[in-house]
Every structure is written in structure tokens, then in C-alpha cells.
């Protein structure tokens, strides 16, 4: 009996530790504004369902030109094109339009784009669109930005946009961001750079807080300020969003590395967010979880062509046996199983430093998405909120 009090104290301390460590975690669900499952009704229903279930945010992918072939091989498992209840039209609901509409259909749900290929757009027009949406939604937008990757080059070519070298694309993104910030904060803004030039532009309404959160979509923010993505994050970033194939140890070391770089640069990291894009397939049983993603290897054999996150210049396709193994590898590196399996995965990334999750559910049809969204909210969220 004499050990009961110390044991109880230890339990209370551990409980408080996990409350402090895990209680700040926020979850977002990726809704089907693209891929075979997408439709107007499902976009609205899934956003409203996310809010009803207690998700912090809803997330979408952003492209302008979405080919029929890309639609069929859509990363990362958002509906099979062979399912009779899905669409063969290559839908890609435009980000600003979709979120502005959905903001009027919801009350508190935040909306994030992960991520927008900013360089496909005009800087001033985009700045005005985002500012308008920020006002109409009461500041519920998270602007995930990126410079695109090699698998997106055809989209730039088709739209007549230059696909510059990696470092130059970040220089261009930096100019875009600085120019947009100027029109968000000044009565009449002028900007003169290599890529963006304008005089006396007045944009109202401006964002409510003269700012919209900017999350950098880059594979890593490690490696020092000489890396283009790191420099951009230091100059403009409020958070990071990526993940996919990285492991908790990779996330932990990246956060530490970037933290050291940020400290040297004098950047305040106290409110910097780390959003892990987690691919998962859930079910009340392991068999059901497997059913939600086993179709990918069969129906998306060429997905690697459109999955830039599986490619890097040094190693090529990350699968040892080549790009044809990408669908199998994509599933094997995801969290697949019952809620207890997913809880363990989330815990590992939270311990590594993740503060947000952009959940990429894998499913063959819309019913699979709804089932998993509900199951996650019921069986996983309570462990972290």
C-alpha cells in the first residue's frame, strides 16, 4: 500500500505530459475536389462532414491542367477509376473558388491547400483572390505554397509558363510572396523585381490580419539557409507541410536542423507549424483496411509518373525496382490497419514534433472515405484532443 501514492503521482504526471504533448495536435481531412471520387455534391458533403466530426481543417490539392491520364493514376489513392460510382471526368476544383464557396457552407472549418503551384498564377490577381476569401471566410485559409516538381513540368509547358531551375523557382516564389504581402498591407503598393512588376496597386479588402498563414511544401527544411526551400521558409514561412515517405526520425532531425538554422537567422519559431501529410487506410478490421487500398496496385500502375514526391534527382524513383513498383511501395509506406495501428503511427509523428496532420485517406469509393473519416474521428481523435 505504501507504493500506491508514488505510483498514482507518476500516473498523473504521465497523463499531464501526454495531455500537453498530444492535446495540441490538429487534424485535417483531405476532401475529394479531385480524383475519380470528386463531384460537386461530394465536395460539399465531405467538407460539412469534416466540420461535423470535429476536424480542424479540410485540405485539397491544386492544379490547373489535369489530364485524363493523370486522373486515372491519381496519387495517392483517392478513388478507383474502375468503380462505377466514380467519375471519369478529370475534375480539379479550383482552390480559391472552391474554398470561398465552402466557407459559406461551414462555420468554423479551416481550409488549406497542400500545395498550390503558385508560379502558374498571376501574383496580383492571386493576392486579391486570397484576400477576398480571407475576408469572406473570417480568416479560415491556410496557404500551402510550392514550386512544383519534375512531374508537374508538363502542366507548366501546356500553360505556356516557364519551368525554371529549382533555385530560380524559389526566387520567383519569393518575389510573388513579397509582392502579395505588399498589396495586403499597403494602401497603394508598388513592386519591382525580376519576375513581378507593378505600380500603385490598391487591393481591398485586405486580409483581416494583413496576413494569411503560409506553409512551405518542401520535402525537407534541413540543410541550412543556403538551400532555397530553407531560405524561403526563413523569409516567409509560418509552417511546413509535406511528409509522404518520411519517417518519424526524419521529421525529428529536420525540425531540429531547421530550428538551429532559424535561431541563427533570428526567426521566431514559437508559432511555426509542422504539418505531416499522412497517408492511411483504416477499417474496423485489418482486412477492411487492406480492402481500402489493395486496389491501388491494380488500378494505378503508372501513378509514379504523377507522384513527384516519389522522385529525387540523385536516386530517381525511390523504389529499388523502378517506377512500376511505386503503387506497391506507396501502400507499404502508409499506415494501414485498425484505429489502434493508426494511433501508434500518429503518436510517433507527434513525438517527433508534428503539430498538424493532413490526412490522405486511401479508398476505392466515396463510401470508403466517409467510413474512414468517421472511424478516425471516433477512435483516433480522442487520443489526441
Q: In summary, what is this structure?
A:
The protein is an alpha/beta fold.
Spatial order of the strands forming the largest sheet: 1-2-3-4-7-8-9-13
The DSSP helix count reads 14
| Poorly predicted residue ranges | 8-22, 317-322
What fraction of residues sit in β-strands?
A: 15-25%
Overall geometry comes to: globular
Helix content: 40-55%
Radius of gyration: 21 Å
Structural category is alpha/beta
Order of helices and strands: HEHEHHEHEHHEEEHEHEHHEEHEHEH
The termini sit apart by 33 Å
What report would you give on this structure?
The structure is a single chain. With 385 residues, the chain is of the alpha/beta class. It has helices spanning 4-22, 40-53, 68-72, 95-103, 123-137, 153-158, 166-185, 228-236, 248-265, 286-291, 295-299, 326-332, 339-352, 366-379; strands spanning 26-30, 57-60, 110-117, 141-146, 189-192, 197-201, 214-216, 239-243, 273-282, 311-312, 316-317, 335-337, 356-361. The strands form 3 sheets. Strands 1-2-3-4-7-8-9-13 form an 8-stranded parallel beta barrel, surrounded by 6 helices. Strands 5-6 form a two-stranded antiparallel sheet. A two-stranded antiparallel sheet has the order 10-11. Strand 1, helix 2 and strand 2 (57-60) form a beta-alpha-beta unit. Helix 7 (166-185) runs parallel beside helix 8 (228-236). The two termini are 33 Å apart. Mean pLDDT is 91; it is low at 8-22 and 317-322.
